[in-house]
Write a structure and sequence with these properties.
The structure is a homodimer.
Chain A (H helix, E strand, L loop, with lengths): L7 H15 L4 H8 L4 E2 H8 L4 H13 L3 E6 L5 E6 L1 H34 L21 H7 L10
Antiparallel strand pairs in A: 1-3, 2-3
Chain A binds a DNA duplex through helix 4.
DNA sequence: CTGTATCCGAGCCGATACTG
DNA sequence: CAGTATCGGCTCGGATACAG
């Protein structure tokens, strides 16, 4: 018998579990940044720009719990803590790239569909309004680009 | 030529936008079910099993707004409404498969990491407790399997 | 610098009741 | 059958203050 259909039960939970982790507001961005190499707490904080230290701590703690990042403390003064992707964390970048490619290449189409839909039903309030993620400051971030760019099926020459 | 580094600003927003849509509790499951072909409202509702009609409506409305599914009304009595993935919606399955493959093949490792972490810090409450998605009933759902199975890197034989 | 603790608003999501 | 409306709990996530 083919390998398919084997454990649908557990399988559909699997993807939900993953989305419960990376589906939140900040996780993918952190992973993307970290994919370029280890970073310190405030380095992440500054680069992202719109995250509170509370959420950064929580996000990192969650990733650490799942074995996706390591937390290394240097007992110096002032203290220094490095966060780095584990091997497992690195592998996550692959499917993330796939998603990233889809997102970038289809965003215009989605935006158009939304406008068309909203125009057709002006009275109905939008299902779920945005969750705006503040843009990173353009300055210090070829990092994020390397992280997800060069994905398959993503973009042609531009 | 590498097209990289071109529009980092817009790009990191792109992936966040996508996650804002598919990162919620039900969307991927609906897309997975729909990937096998059109389905009616209550058919989806029954198959998923744990979703309220409110959330199913909202989820479908959101997908429709983004141009990922179409809603077709048959003005019969009783009324009948079919939901179906658009071409754009179909393309989403590709990156979803990628994620699905990663999820299934790494879930044991993640679970282990969590246990280890929780064992090491018994007092600290978990960052974000679960978001349990009720399992689909095993009965009528080879559908979901076809949707995401045969993904690359996912599973070898067996 | 790297966190933790607390307060608080906003939204998600389920339960229930009602309509065409 | 396929929704809409309304209520209420709960969680997410920002702001602020404090600690090692």
């Amino acid at each position: 018998m083919e390998p398919s259909h084997s454990d649908v039960h557990g399988d559909c939970r699997a993807i939900s579990d993953v989305l419960a982790r990376i589906g939140d507001k900040w996780t993918v961005m952190v992973v993307g940044l970290l994919s370029d190499g280890p970073m310190r707490f405030n380095e992440l904080r500054r680069t992202i720009g719109g995250i509170s230290q509370r959420m950064l701590t929580l996000t990192l703690r969650g990733l650490e719990r799942d074995g996706l990042v390591t937390r290394t403390v240097f007992p110096t003064i002032p203290p220094r803590v490095d966060y780095e992707l584990t091997d497992l964390g690195q592998t996550l970048i692959v499917p993330l790239k796939s998603l990233f490619a889809w997102a970038t290449s289809n965003r215009p189409m989605i935006a158009a569909a939304q406008q068309a839909f909203d125009a057709a039903t002006p009275n109905t309030p939008v299902p779920h309004p945005p969750r705006q993620v503040p843009n990173l400051q353009a300055a210090r971030l070829p990092k994020m680009a390397q992280a997800f760019d060069d994905a398959p099926g993503g973009r042609n020459g531009r």
